[in-house]
Amino acid sequence: MIADSGHVGISDRYIPNVMYPGDIIVYTVVDMLKTGDYIQVLQLTDIKELAVEHVEVTKISMIDGAVSVEDPLSGFTYIVTKRNVIGKVVKVITAFSQEWEHVFYEFKDRRWLLKTLKKHLDLYKNTGYFNQRQIVSEVERRLSKVKEETR
């Protein structure tokens, strides 16, 4: 029997205490959620485009399964239906760790990673996040590492 049990992705964003751009994220399908879980949700933006967001679960309704969430960057809270939950973060493989090197070797698209890191470095340099220096420093370190490897 083959069953869909999750998916894997490469982060293109920073989420406090969870991930940086370039990390490999392992998601599982959502059967049971609990407060504090980080999930990937599909949202409709103000301009009627679909967006994938990473949010933290703050409460689950026992009545209809609606999930109260908080955006860890903005602190904005809202409710999503369970059917809009794409996956639950179960593992983060830190960029350039031994495990990351083994998995990312198969992906091989260093140009995509370089472009993504550059884009997000510019973005994070212009934010007012309380830990902006830490974020910029880590993204710069990762950018430097990718540049070294592509030489």
Q: What's this entry about, in short?
A:
The chain is built from 3 helices and 7 strands. It has helices at 98-107, 110-125, 132-149; strands at residues 6-10, 24-28, 38-44, 50-60, 67-70, 77-80, 85-93.
Describe this structure in words.
- With 151 residues, the chain is of the alpha+beta class.
- Helices cover 29% and strands 30% of the residues.
- It has helices at residues 98-107, 110-125, 132-149, and strands at residues 6-10, 24-28, 38-44, 50-60, 67-70, 77-80, 85-93.
- The termini are far apart.
- The model has no long low-confidence stretch (mean pLDDT 87).
Low-confidence stretches: none
Strand content is: 25-35%
| Largest pleated sheet | 7 strands, antiparallel
Q: Give the terminus-to-terminus CA distance.
A: 44 Å
| Overall residue-averaged pLDDT value | 87
Number of E strands = 7
Q: Which outline best applies?
A: globular
Strand ordering within the main sheet: 1-2-7-3-4-5-6
Helix content: 25-40%
Whole-number radius of gyration? 17 Å
Structural class: alpha+beta
* SSE string, helices as H and strands as E: EEEEEEEHHH
